[in-house]
Amino acid sequence: MSLNEYNKKRKFQETPEPEGTVKESGKNIYVVQKHKASRLHYDFRIEYNGVLKSWAIPKGPSINPSNRRLAIETEDHPLDYADFEGIIPEGNYGAGSVIIWDYGAFENHSMKDGKEISLQNAYKNGHMTLILGGKRLEGEFALIKMKRDNQWLLVKKDDNYADRGIEITKKYNSSVFSSKSLEDLANDK
Ligand code: MN
């Protein structure tokens, strides 16, 4: 895996984001960051071969199994990014504010032809089944690649953690790490 694209896009003398190195945590890190850049979106990231595979979800994740949320794959991020919350200064890539909206670990439960397969094979096949153990997102989710490059769908499986009655991104607005909202963070300056 490589973080060249991540590192190339950023000026580390200006942005507080961590500089990237590839390393394994052995913890199967999962994180969702709420990011107010030119447009608000949620960055969904999972540990994969020493980096965080990353998808930008414009509408955010949903726990309603009827919703299929577009997830656009973006450049791999370093594992240290999972702890990042802060303000990316104007003039920098992704300028705006970032909070840690959900955090935890995941398990790979991907299958092919009735057999469990590795996360790596599931990624290559374009169909991953993940059990999320976050503070807000729990249970089974599928990430399914569409025909168009970089476009995936994030879909909640209809399990005990599914709920058709609430919009989870409306229910929870703040950071699981600092309890700050994006607005609180912006006002901290
Ligand atoms: Mn982002």
Rounded Rg: 16 Å
Number of strands: 11
Q: Whole-Å distance between the termini?
A: 35 Å
Q: Strand order, biggest sheet?
A: 1-2-3-4-11-10-9-6
Beta-strand percentage range:
35-45%
Order of helices and strands: HEEEEEEEEHEEEHH
| Count of structural domains | 1
* Secondary structure tally, helices: 4
Can you offer a commentary on this structure?
With 189 residues, the chain is mainly beta. The chain has one domain. The protein contains 4 helices and 11 strands. The strands form 2 sheets. Strands 1-2-3-4-11-10-9-6 form an 8-stranded antiparallel barrel. A two-stranded antiparallel ribbon has the order 7-8. Strand 1 (29-36) and strand 2 (40-48) form a beta hairpin. The longest helix has 7 residues, at 119-125. The mean pLDDT is 96. The site of manganese (II) ion has 6 residues, from strand 2.
Secondary-structure blueprint of this entry?
Elements lengths: L3 H6 L19 E8 L3 E9 L2 E7 L10 E10 L8 E3 L7 E13 L2 E2 L2 E2 L2 H7 L1 E8 L3 E8 L5 E6 L11 H4 L10 H6 L2
Antiparallel strand pairs: 1-2, 1-6, 2-3, 3-4, 4-11, 5-6, 6-9, 7-8, 9-10, 10-11
Bound molecules: manganese (II) ion (MN).
The site of manganese (II) ion has 6 residues, from strand 2.
